[in-house]
Amino acid sequence: MQAKAALATIANALAKTGAGMQHVVRTVVYVIDMADTQHIVRAHSEAFDQIRPASTLVQVAGLTPASARVEIEATAIICD
Question: Which of 2, 20, 22, 69 has the highest local Cβ count within 10 Å?
Answer without folding.
Answer: 2
